[in-house]
Amino acid sequence: MANQQINNQSAFSDVGWNLNYFMGLAFLVNVATVATIAFSNGGMAVYVPLTVLIVFMNVLAIIGLNATMDDARSVLQDLSEEEQKSHRYQNWLNAPWIFYRAIISVGFGAALLAQLWAMYMA
Q1: Are 97 and 16 in contact, with CB atoms under 8 Å apart?
Q2: Which domain holds residue 105?
Q3: pTM score
Q4: Quick check: 118 pLDDT over 60?
Q5: What is the model's pLDDT at position 49?
Q6: For 27-63, what is each residue's pLDDT tens digit?
Q7: Residue 84 scores a pLDDT above 60
Q8: What CA–CA distance (Å, rounded) separates 18 from 64?
Q9: What does the DSSP assignment read for 48-97?
């Protein structure tokens, strides 16, 4: 039993790092692309590679964060009844996962569209 608890804690630690990794990477790339858009003279030489980067990073963030939430759900489903009653996992068990998925999809989708709008329509 103790071995399974250690495995669950380790798996959940990986889930936390993956959430932070995807969110942080996407945030940094979006800040860098917005700064590039704001401070460049524009033109297709800048906008075409930025378009690829913007679409790739925001889609990667949406897919990666949703996959990481699936990983979290898998770990939570593997918990024993004793572990499910512990305080360690209560916030995760009661988390509004659908809401988080919607916020991530809408947020990164809006970031993608806003940056493309700023480059091509503004």
Answers
A1: no
A2: 2-120
A3: 0.82
A4: yes
A5: 92
A6: 999 999 999 999 988 788 889 999 999 999 999 999 9
A7: yes
A8: 8
A9: HHHHHHHHHHHHHHHHHHHHHHHHHHHHHHT--HHHHHSGGGHHHHT--H
Which is higher by pLDDT, 107 or 86?
107
Other C-beta atoms within 10 Å of 27: how many?
14
- Tell the residue number behind the tokens 């790092």, with chain if given: 17
Is the pLDDT reported for residue 16 higher than 80? no
Q: Report how far apart, in Å, the C-alpha atoms of 35 and of each of 7, 59, 65, 91 are.
A: 42, 20, 24, 36
Secondary structure letter of residue 41 according to DSSP: -
- CA dihedral (99, 105, 108, 114) in degrees, to 10, reads -110
d(CA 49, CA 54): 9
- d(CA 115, CA 83) in angstroms, rounded, equals 44
Q: Which residues contact 34 (CB under 8 A, 6 or more apart)?
A: 115, 118
What is the domain count for the chain? 1
9 closest CA partner among 109, 79, 112, 73: 79
pLDDT of 40 reads 87
